[in-house]
Amino acid sequence: MNNEKLEKIIDSSRTDQKELIHILHDVQSEYGYIPPEAVTAISRRLKVSESEIFGVLTFYNAFSLTPKGEHVMTVCMGTACHVRGGPQIVEDIERKLDVKVGETTADNKFTLETVNCIGCCAIGPVVVVDEKYYSNITLNKIDPIINEYKEDKS
Amino acid sequence: MEKISHPNQLLEWKSDVIANRPPYVKTIVISSGTCGQASGSLPVIEALEQELLKRNLKNKFEVKITGCHGFCEMEPNLIIYPDGIFYKKLKPKDVPKIVEETLLNNKIIPSLVFEEARTKERIYEQEEIPFYKKQKRLLTENNFKIDPTKIEDYVALDGYQALSKVLFNMTSEEVIEDIISSGLRGRGGAGFPAGKKWEICYREESQEKYIICNADEGDPGAYMDRSLLEGNPHSVIEGMTIGAYAIGASEGFIYVRGEYPLAVRHVTNAINQAREKGFLGTSIMGSEFQFDIQVIEGAGAFVSGEETSLMASIEGRRAFPRQRPPYPAQKGLWDKPTNINNVETWANIAPIIRNGAEWYAGIGTKGSKGTKIFSLVGKINNTGLVEVPMGITLKEIIYDIGGGIKDNKKFKAVQTGGPSGGCIPAEKLNLPIDYDTLAKAGSIMGSGGMIVMDESTCMVDIAKYFLTFTQEESCGKCVPCRIGTRQLFEILNRITQGRGEEGDIKKLKSLAKTVSSGSLCALGQTAPNPILTTLKYFLEEYEIHIKEKSCPALVCKDLIIYYIEPKKCVGCLLCLKSCPVDAISGERKKLHVIDHDLCIKCGACLEVCPPKVSAVSKYTGTKKEKLMKKTSPKRVKK
Ligand SMILES: Cc1cc2nc3c(=O)[nH]c(=O)nc-3n(C[C@H](O)[C@H](O)[C@H](O)COP(=O)(O)O)c2cc1C
């Protein structure tokens, strides 16, 4: 872990508990998860107990205690996606990547997640990979999406 | 940029903005909100810019990139002004043709024109398209005219003039009086009169007071708040600043759902512009009033949309709701008086101040004034955001604006109010929609999600869907909500799996009562609504699931089979190849057969079977049993 970066994230913020969620957002986007060392450091800076910080970070879906894969594949589970077949899509991706929702593939390529709604209900079911949206997903569109990221060597 | 320090300067600025517009021949407005971008608007914009540059036409034609136009089904789309020509579902390859034929030669390209799904009529003018024609777009109309990254566009449409009027010509009491007599009710769910809420907060004595804009929009299937923030962020900022002046607050927060990155970007940018121009900060527009706004990103918890939880979240804590009273207006953020309203509520403020309370009170029904934006989604032809006057009937929304049900299927129900709401059946299509009529029908207005369902939607499955949601999102503070929603879910789950028992319906009803009466916040109080309304209107469907172990809508996986019709199968191997578990056997030009023991019911075979052939069907109940017996012995092992 790069401590300089962490120092910077914590230092650039003020020292009040109201900064806690901002700091966690910054740590999450810098490291892809919240490393335990970060919790200790934040606790010292904000003078908020570690247990309180764990309470907060496990409460919200945006924070994760384990690192994520290279690509995060998110399937929308909103109502509109649901009535248009969203559940079938998740199951199929689970089968194809051989992971359950929330898990990361063995080769660390993908983490599979779901989201309650991304508000793109007209084009559901929707799958988002990192920041790219894939719309009107049907079962036969899943393999091509997975392959697009498997092949890329970045 | 120079700050505006006098009301007259705002008027001058507006005239300057309009006078200094280059003399474009036409303006091409491209919708590029999140939906638009997800459907591919960015490559279309890129292609258009390139084409105009290449042909040296950039000084003749203006390209304006705006937020959502509401007609999500037709994204990416554009409108060419002054003619108002609407082109839909664009691809970059359409661009050269548009430039050549429509921009330069005023010819319409029929293949890009909207076609009404039922009548097949082609309509090229945006305003004439039925989807738009029956709407009353008080708040969303400006999404066509505003580039949300440019404050000038907002100012050109009288932006910040309501703020100017308030700061220099009205007292706090007068502002509050206007909002009260306009009849505006909160758009975030409960429909509390906005002016009354402001008045309570105004009366509290405190050095510090806060204003909050609730943009958490957690309700799945609703996205009007996102569209307003993305497409017209200054309207929300102006509304909040007026509210701050009325109650005497100097600090404000916009709490935006973290899943809305574009909305966060646009609103942050707009706040910076407003500060630079002197609409936020100290001495606003040269007056003595000061106010500033901070954007807070949510972190993904549905309950944080509840007002007391939201405040806990801003304070950097877990989003647990707390007992009310004291209401936020008395004791809110850091225990100071706080006025919280929804995005759409805030967006209504400036138009009310500008046009007067009477004008506003003239729109809508007796108890519900103004317009409401609904997200019309699900099994409907014209999916999108629709803004309609209160009191319009469901039928008008679904058939006239929405163009009817997809694939000519039969309308079954519409779900409003998200996880706190309920399903309204076909018998109630003539219901005029407002806060009170929806509540009477057992549902709620909620934030405006309107999910249309057809005959292929199972109502037990829908109830299960919402309970899956609420039991996951229950914060766990109140036991009846934490454990009760879980148990409600388990019962529904059993029913959909064919393990329903006599007495389940009674159990659901009594547990529903416990959950709603024993929970602190509306999450728990309303969590049983999706079950109660489906029981009220679709009891028979529950009974069939429980007694006959069958799912008439052919949705519940454990109660159906996929079956290949011997008379229709042409033996093309498509389904066989698509099956992820090799449950289909057969040879080219010979009948294919599904092994029901291996089949996981993923639906891949049904999806790939060519529409001309349509040999794959779903069956439930006794027919299913019969077919399973019939096909089992003949099974061919691979
Ligand atoms: C579980 C739950 C979630 C809520 N989510 C939202 C939301 O996402 N947006 C919103 O404006 N109001 C939401 N509300 C309603 C707020 O508590 C509050 O009533 C509203 O922000 C008040 O604004 P209004 O008077 O302008 O409607 C939610 C309420 C509950 C119980």
Which key features would you list for this structure?
heterodimer; A: 154 residues; Glutaredoxin; 2 domains; 7 helices; B: 638 residues; Rossmann fold; Ubiquitin-like (UB roll); 5 domains; five-stranded mixed sheet; 25 helices; globular; binds flavin mononucleotide
The number of helices of chain A is 7
Q: Unreliable stretches of chain B, pLDDT < 50, 5 or more residues?
A: none
Beta-strand content bin of chain A: 5-15%
How many domains in all of chain A?
2
Radius of gyration of chain A: 18 Å
Strand content of chain B: 5-15%
Largest interface, C-beta within 8 A: A-B, 48 and 60 residues
CATH superfamily of the largest domain in chain B: NADH-ubiquinone oxidoreductase 51kDa subunit
Multimeric status of the protein: heterodimer
CATH superfamily of the largest domain in chain A: Glutaredoxin
Bound molecules: flavin mononucleotide
**How many E-type strands of chain A?**
4
Helix content of chain B: 25-40%
So, CATH architecture of the largest domain in chain B?
3-Layer(aba) Sandwich
- Can you summarize the main beta sheet of chain B? 5 strands, mixed
> What's the alpha carbon Rg of chain B, rounded to whole Å?
27 Å
Structural category of chain A: alpha+beta
